[in-house]
Amino acid sequence: MEDLKKKILEEGTAIGKDIVKVDGFLNHQIDARFLEKIGREFASRFRDLKIDRILTVEASGIAIAVGTAPFIGYPPVVFAKKAAPNTMKEGFYEAQAKSFTKGTVSRLIVSEKYLNEGENVLILDDFLAYGEASMALAEMIIKSGGKVAGIGAVIEKSFQGGADKLREKGYRVESLAQIEKIEDGVITFK
Amino acid sequence: MEDLKKKILEEGTAIGKDIVKVDGFLNHQIDARFLEKIGREFASRFRDLKIDRILTVEASGIAIAVGTAPFIGYPPVVFAKKAAPNTMKEGFYEAQAKSFTKGTVSRLIVSEKYLNEGENVLILDDFLAYGEASMALAEMIIKSGGKVAGIGAVIEKSFQGGADKLREKGYRVESLAQIEKIEDGVITFK
Fold this sequence. Notes:
2 copies of one chain form a homodimer.
Chain A: H1 2-11, E1 13-15, E2 19-21, E3 29-30, H2 32-45, E4 53-57, H3 61-68, E5 77-80, E6 92-99, E7 104-111, E8 120-128, H4 132-143, E9 147-157, H5 162-168, E10 173-183, E11 186-189
Parallel strand pairs in A: 4-5, 4-8, 8-9, 9-10
Antiparallel strand pairs in A: 1-2, 6-7, 10-11
Helix pairs in contact in A: 2-3
């Protein structure tokens, strides 16, 4: 997605060899107009699929998922929570995911009510790095008896291997921008 | 907003005297079509204001803010984070807010880059209970030299006093549904 690559180069910041900071339009400040372009692009990439539900993870996945839903027929959007709030006492699916950015392991939780047997579920997220979050979401979808329709990421950091790992497992992965390397403040796309 | 009250009664669950659970359409599973109605309603309530920016707090405020932005001219949406990730090392505003649902005190953080002097900032959130989150967001807006244009909540739990407290401080508060009490599993609107 050329618009996105341009925006990453113009507004993003490369930090060290691992981090690209896009908090000016994607995951702290959000450009809601650009979000519609992202939503349209995901809809186009996955247009051959029947999608019953979108699954993402709080917090920065929420805008992506909610911004995409209108372009694929408004399926229910569900976001995995990172801890069980005290209003969530009944059954839930859970899986663990390491957060690269925060350096922590999160316990991801989705209420059993919001993942159903036989559904085709599209996983969406802002970043795809080591693939830990997508793997955890896929695990919960499978536990529920659903099927992973595909995995969409706005920015794939290809060099961290998550996308390849997911593709090797047979998942269809669509990333709107693929970063091959980050070096000396320069971002190189695939 | 009559549609919303109906949806709360039909799909929400009252727990004890304090909690109304709306995780079927608002803060775990999200109904993206209904979100557009919410966005349109906020736009209508605040149509007399010039809004430069929307400020909310992760995680469940994000969908509300992103869903409202298109109806008020796509101002930048910013969400306060509940802890500083390791990509956020430069200056930020911070304020504390007690979370009623999780029984914890959160440290809310917004990068200094995304709140500016002289801006009119609209605060949006899913719930307005004790008003702790809105108060913290307002504090950060004021520190940045901006002005609180108004505070919008999808669901106000009036009996917990936050809305009154904010109105006494001179803020304009618009709640799309106002709950007067929760008792024996019955939700009563104002």
